[in-house]
Amino acid sequence: MDQNDGKAQMEGATRAADRSNASGFERRLLRRMMAAAGNPPLAVALWNGEDFSPVAGTPLARIHVRDRGALLRMVVNPELYTGDDYATGKVDIEGDFVGCLETIYNSLENLPENSFKARLLRWMNKPRPNTLAGSRANVHHHYDLGNDFYRLWLDAGHMQYTCAYYARPDLTLEQAQLAKLDHVARKLQLVPGQVVYEAGCGWGGLARHFAASYGVTVRAFNISEEQVKFAREQARREGLEGRVEYVLDDYRNMSGQCDAFVSVGMLEHVGVENYPVLGKVIHRVLAPRGRGLIHSIGRNRPAPMNAWIEKRIFPGAYPASLSEMMRIFEDHKFSVLDIENLRLHYARTLAHWRERFEAEADAVRALYDERFVRTWRLYLAGSEASFLMGALQLFQIVFARSGDNSVPLTRQHLYGH
Predict the structure, then answer these.
(1) Could you say which of 129, 171, 385, 405 would form a disulfide bridge with 175 (CB–CB 3.0 to 4.6 Å)?
(2) Which residues contact 199 (CB under 8 A, 6 or more apart)?
(3) 3-class DSSP state of 351
(4) 105-114, 217-226, 369-378 — which is least confidently predicted?
(5) Phi, psi of 44, rounded to the nearest 5 degrees
(6) Distance between CA 166 and CA 176 in Å, rounded?
């Protein structure tokens, strides 16, 4: 037997001993973890075949931990490292995927704010800044993955990557996304001939729909080159070049004047520190009797973004509370006219996206790899879980200038159609 063979045998024996002797340590660790989480109806299967569940009966789901390192990382930083280990297959979930994530997120959400663990996680999971250069890098990380990828599972009509509006529970994704665009248009009280500015236009579906269906002219700003290129091509195909302008630039550089300002799904990437700047931009461009609407993921109280999603999916993202969002309006005396929470609409939207994504998983795998598929599976399921359990909200805020007495007296214009 040569030296290498002997070394391999010794390493194998060490790993076998480690497997056989690990259960006592793992069980103590798991008991503490489960107790801290309120002993949820989840089972944990260890890499050595041992199974642990703190409650009797059939568990909601079983978390498979493939190696010891994954368990230790789960203890140190459960949000970030467990997401990474799921993406690489070191952690897996068997059973109710979304329900399991809801249970885990509930336990993290209920950590006392001043506990050592909560303070440590806040320190470890700081978001990236949204400077002009930082915002471009952050947007490129997510939105410039390729239009072919998003086309696989977003709605075929307008490629809307924001919360749909299920005016009826039986709507398809395409119908619900169109209903969302019309819902926003009614809130802005659009009339033909008006000028609309849009901050963060995605693939341009809102701008094209507003121009084609409401007779307005839209100037839409976006810093994603892939999205702007797609939007311009679509506008040409639909004969809307003279009525829709897609500007490859940051919202901070808006100039001129508009009758309506709209931002759907961009505020999450602005950063609270930049809210006064956004308010200043809106104050600069909105006409005296103009209307504004901001549609954004939010929270019931200030809290950091899920660390794994912020670092691996949406760098620089932050869902703000309503009190934080008010920093946009207060300095310039904007009057908030209406706030609507579409939380459950977003959960349903994500369920539709996830179903389509899974149907196209092989195509996604061909474009990227298995780790990418698992990363996005976790992101979509985790986001759905966050809306279902109330960690995330979806706010639509309508506003106008404080002295504008032409504001509607009722909400009839929203629901009378």
Answers:
(1) 171
(2) 221, 251, 254, 261, 262, 263, 266, 278, 281
(3) helix
(4) 105-114
(5) -125, 125
(6) 5
